[in-house]
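Re: folding output
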Amino acid sequence: MLTYHGPSMKLRTPVGLALAASIALAGCTSDGADDPPVDAGGTGPSGEPVLLEPASITLPAGPTAVLGGATADALAIEASQTFFGQSPVVVLVAGGDDPTGAAAIAVELGVPLLPTPSAAPASDGTASPSTPTPPATGSPAPSAPADDGSATTDELTRLEASVVVAVGAGATTFAEALPDGITVVTAPDGAAAVGDLPADALPEITAAEKPAFVAGLGAEFGTPEQLAYRVGVAQTGVELPGGGQVLYPYHRHIALYGNPTTSALGSLGEQSLPEAITRAQDLAAEYQALIEETAVPTFELIASVASSVPSSGGDYSTEMTPEVIRPYVDAAREAGVYVVLDLQPGRLDFLTQAKVFEEFLREPHVGLALDPEWRLRPGEVHLEQVGSVSAEEVNSVVTWLADLTRDNNLPQKVLVLHQFRTDMVSDRTQVDTSRDELAVLVHVDGFGPPGSKLATWNAIRADPPPNVWWGWKNFIDEDSPTFTPDETMQLEPVPHFVSYQ
């Protein structure tokens, strides 16, 4: 193997090294069979030029791969394993100030870039025995991110040769080494993942231009399945109300809660639809003056209303017809208002009732709320017992809604879980919050004087499942007094969903 020792250079980020180790495939996705041999720059025993077979470029079988090495060396080796079947030349780099020189050499030769080992090269300029060689192609497993500032996504890099390489934090200095035909898209400050890019920041990607393969360099991209979902959503260009394709922490929803057919169930039904749009927008504007995140006007629409007598199906719940819901969903879409459909299912299970509203949940601006207070067991009736739900039943909704979101390339959805008593959700720590397609939010619904509300807030927040967000309800009539927007934003943690009933 011929090894090229680049000039003395310092690798500033693990992701940058891994990117340089793989960007040579930008212009080639073949196995190298049709490529000309590489001139080794020397002659053989008979004076003929020494020619080496070109590097063979390989891609994993799946549509996505995530390289999650925690160090620069690990990422570079994983990139070599993933993208190169074999290579006659390896560019080695170590020490110095400017990483782009070695990266440019690797790109020009179409070969891997690897870190030099700790042992110095031999005096004759050849590699020492410990010089790393490109390992055989494999499927690297994601590992934990490094504690060096590389655990946040800054850029998405699109290669026009049917390949996308999504680059983690700190790779800006390597942009100079990218070959022609690559567009660098910079994500907003604080972006957490590939999918959290505004639609207008991405090049237009038509169905014909959809890349055949996407690689995420850095453990921040999660699993290959998560990366595939996020990139699929990004390619649609569809944004959430308030922008982007990920809900939290970038948005705070400010909601009117209620049912369109009556004013008795909350503020949403106290005025006409156009007036409700204006009221929600005005309320969000009050919060926007207090926060840095985007305040999103929101409707939390009770899509099934608990009843004191058995409904036609015997489940003590009356489902709103599409004729009631559709005008609010459509008007909200046009006005940039998010919609959450709230379920009070009576004796019906949440999953069965959620599926009734599937046509609306296929909309990118519509989420779902489960209200266990109104989930009855056999023999129970509303207002005599406070309902409850098991984590198992909640998880059935999590799986169904997440799959629906993924299968339709929809932006992340909120799944709200209402609660004002700890026994309303049994085994709550077992609620599945791992699905990237959903933001699971526990909404604390206690009412009364401030001391009582805060006691409920603290009790419900104890021992939650991992990765949940928090919501708060202001009761306009029952609270005494109702929290002001400023007081609401003083809660700890600051709620990401505030509703008014």
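--- second protein (sequence, then structure) ---
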Amino acid sequence: MKRAALLSLAQVAAFGPWIGIVQAQTEITHIPPVFRPLALYESQYRLRAGQRVALAAPEETLDFIRDARIRTVTIAGPQGKGIVVGPNTERNGIELAASLLAEPGEYVVTLSARSGTGEERATTLAVILDPVQTVPVNSPNPPVVALDGWQFTCPGSLSGTFGSMADLLHDNGSYQVPVVYFFDNCVECPAPDCTIEELGNVLGQVLGLIKYDNGVLVSQVDLIAHSMGGLIVRSYLSGKQDTSGVFAPLSNPRVRKTIFIATPHFGSYQADSSLASLDVFAANQLNEMNPGSPFLCVGSA
């Protein structure tokens, strides 16, 4: 039996953005699908790159998507990727989330979900994606990019990881942060089971998109990283390109300060736990977080 067959239905459902791989590796029985429309209150949504929006739907539809064995997102548009769907555990809803790197434009998104009994529901959404938020040109302080750690459900959320931090930074007396961007690693992952090195390179691309509202590239940003997010920062700052040990550090990474919160700089015993071994969709990241891994020993600044 394939290793993925060990996953529970709840664990499989947590990885909606990578559903093609889920379906390929966990199809154990052959249940003829029963097709029905996926009922939503709204068929058009608008959001900004790097942000998320809740699906407006009956509770029964939300429950069906949340409990689905397989969730599939098929995207037509200028890029064909960069939008994912998954449960928001804080609000008990379902959200569309857009990558910070997603190209602005109009997308046609087909969302389908299949239950363990073989019932499949699908609908088509029109999604308008606006560019990444700009920074006011007169802001005296740099923006902040907040990076979350390894997630068991995708997408994650800024408040789920950092609480009310963004509100406090926006309204902090004499020192105010103009914009707080959320780097959700499971949304930004360029492929299923991407490495921390790949996420570090994606972080560099994201920083290259942050501009003032006059179109000029922001000169500096501050980073706040939780757990594995700190390792993504370390990989970016060291210029590590891939797992072969090739480094190309930037002369100006444009990072002023970094705050690490509970980052496993020397590894995490949980990355080698029996529960983590079931997560075949983040095996590379978990292996790199193992104490004594090549990534931790020679793989970052």
